[in-house]
């Protein structure tokens, strides 16, 4: 075939610029502008010019084909590139490009080198310096691609072999190996390791002999770290392996069986007649070095069992040190089966030979990170096989924690073994941990905390941790007899948990599941389905069953199999299984009933439909109360009594028991139904205040759950009445709740209400707080009783509490504390907080009444006033800033509670930005987050879009209206944190294109309030797009165009006035200098601020910093009429009157749909 006429037969280097000698400044600028069309430079002009020159040279050299190069055209640059001024240039970019150019020259001149031996030595030392300093900085470092190009060239072109022909090559090779191994220890990228291995293998293949120092370097690397070199170097390192005559004589597969039998005999001889192995152990040592995988695996297995023998293992290892070291090196064998055989041979050594444990522990620590998941799983299994004494005395805690870290491995088999290992070890140590043994506590009591932390990481890990907890940490008794021991075990597990661990346990306990639960609905659908034989409403029943299965299957790893198994169980139509499952799900089932029903359910299921037992076992564990239930309550209440004793063993246990019981009271009061008598009896033990509080809360929850269960005996009623009128606010609160929800004690509550109202002006301190707490419960549960005296109560609390300044606490050092907890507040401030709760409960009790609007309007006005004035009812209050912060928080929480009602939500949304800016305060984030909606992971797609993704545009609109909005670098960095927080919580690979689309859509509309806010909105639009791109890139997600259509809310956005206006906005870039914007935390999980960390002084209490100038600007835009109609009353009497009583229809200020507070109407409200 004739050559292509367009491709020259010979390629010459077109580059003709000077590399070393300098240019005058004007010439440099001219040449630079010819190459780089930019107006300003970040680096000095000389460096910028030379950097670009070497970029051009490298680009040309890289494009030249080695077969067609005219080497004469390379002479000029060949000489200049090795100039000392370039090899030692102070700019690392220049050095990186020079190294690439030299590597290209070696490629183009191959197989001959264009330099002298002395020059080549300098070049390769220069290469080594560039690689070791550049690659360890990571892929994000400057000029990383150039360093990688240099490494790839050395590995592929193999120009590195020229080192072997240089004078004193041994020293240079040793230096190369040592520096490369040091570089590998920096955890460089996998592809970098592979190329480095190729470079070293090339050197070994080319070298005729290896110096002793180099051998030591290589061997030390094998001892320190498993890496790809353990699989690469032995193939070329001929001195490290050779074949023996016996191995060569048994070369086929038929003879391998004889070899296996021989190895079994060797192991037997090692146990019984070790003296006969004088020449056999060296033979096994040689087998460890052969290439045949099966032979090495057999030798590794045999030596492992021999070294682990209880009688002869230690003597064998001492006598045959070389064999011991050779066996240890099998941990880094290139074949996974050999490494697996090594790991499986270590348990006997760990258990029986203390002298050898250090080396074994180092080896196994590396095997926990082995590339093969079977090896990692086997390593975890080794520690799971240890007895208690060995795990306690002969394994370091750090090593066990390394095993625990494999509980989050990518491979399920490794995770299961690691988690089971932890569970077994805790089960072995439980008795000693329970008795308080200090060594057992130090070594193993941390396991529950780690497991619960792991469970909170992902749904997949939660499922696996649940199995371990169910099997090892909190197993159900075999027959369900010993309820006390079962509960004691739970309290031991909880004893050393941190707050996060306790919350994870409560989540796994299934008490938070709302009743009737999804499992109840599924069981009901199974019964109605009747195995497919449906008498009526067939389509509706089938559709309901499909929905129930779809909801439950979302919680399984294999959703398809779970759906099939759940459907198969429904089709089986076994009424006995349905009944047993219903008993297990019932929260009122005791421990004995639960264990008996669960065992029978699983036994019958295994006989009738064994394929579904895995799925149904998970369903059973997630639906029943297997962590603690009604049988646990008596034991926990006993610990509450012991918590008041002087014995220091019980207070912490009592504290955790209280948390568990309070959690049950809040989420699953049904478990207390059978314990009402005990709860009432506990009210008569004033020497145990903790027990009384738990009993009151539980009793109130049970009565609220079913008012027919309210106690009717005279003694209990008298005790509750006495507690309500007592001096303990929390006790009074729950006692008032119990009587208020009993429904049959209205007359008694009316009498108490009269006493409370009459006593309010006289009582002080905790008695006052107790009375207010009871009034808050009456306002919610007994509106008919409360409204009889509501005018007097509301007037009193507003005038005597809300309008008076609070005193700063005297026992709290202001510089050391930015927040006041409840026990640090003065009585007046606590009274204010409870007063707000009274008003909130009053509004909630009128939700469905015709007077709801009239009741809520004055209270909402007071709340907006508190937010406007930074936590005070007056503009120029001298209240302590920390007290004002508590008031703002309480006002914000009140608004959130009211917003669950549609009508209240519309009223609140009008002033939503005023409420929203509170969230930027550190303490408010935690409090608001606890009251926020549940995570959207298992929510239906259409609900997720409407309730989560679509509110992204409202967030951008809110930020555009932020009182501290600024388009400078600092302001944008602040705004970006809110967007990054939202994106990190909600963005997934499925919805990231929708979020990006919504961010862009906000530039196609304008703000409904003003042009100034429109510009702010466009800045937020571009900033959000930029942050979403960064987040997607960090997560490795693609960002395709969103194919659907979206409609933006019309209450906050309006279309552009004309098509020309729209085009102008779309063409304009509103975000300045995106490239220079640095956003902290983008692409990384958001972390809740620590409770102990102090907020920045600069932005401390920003929610209170709505300055006077900002308010003036907003008033001017809204107009004076709107300001006057919505401004809070300046007179104290007007304020008290407006809040105390709802106004009639003739008072126009309370019947309009206008927003409340000084901010006035801002936009049309669109249903919240």
Topology, please?
Blueprint: H1 25-35, H2 45-63, H3 75-81, H4 84-87, H5 92-109, H6 117-134, H7 144-157, H8 169-184, H9 190-206, H10 212-224, H11 229-236, H12 245-249, H13 253-272, H14 280-287, H15 293-307, H16 313-319, H17 321-329, H18 336-344, H19 347-352, H20 357-367, H21 373-384, H22 388-393, H23 397-405, H24 412-435, H25 438-444, H26 447-455, H27 459-473, H28 483-495, H29 499-508, H30 518-529, H31 538-553, H32 559-572, H33 575-585, H34 591-608, H35 613-623, H36 633-642, H37 651-667, H38 676-682, H39 689-705, H40 714-724, H41 729-740, H42 746-759, H43 765-781, H44 783-787, H45 790-802, H46 827-845, H47 852-868, H48 881-898, H49 902-909, H50 912-916, H51 922-930, H52 941-949, H53 952-960, H54 969-986, H55 992-1001, E1 1005-1007, H56 1011-1035, E2 1053-1055, H57 1059-1067, H58 1108-1118, H59 1120-1126, H60 1132-1140
Antiparallel strand pairs: 1-2
Helix pairs in contact: 1-2, 2-5, 5-6, 5-7, 6-7, 6-8, 7-9, 8-9, 8-10, 9-11, 13-15, 14-15, 14-17, 15-18, 18-21, 21-24, 23-24, 24-25, 24-27, 26-27, 26-29, 28-37, 30-31, 30-33, 31-32, 33-34, 34-35, 36-37, 37-39, 38-39, 39-41, 40-41, 41-43, 42-43, 43-46, 45-46, 45-60, 46-47, 46-48, 47-48, ...
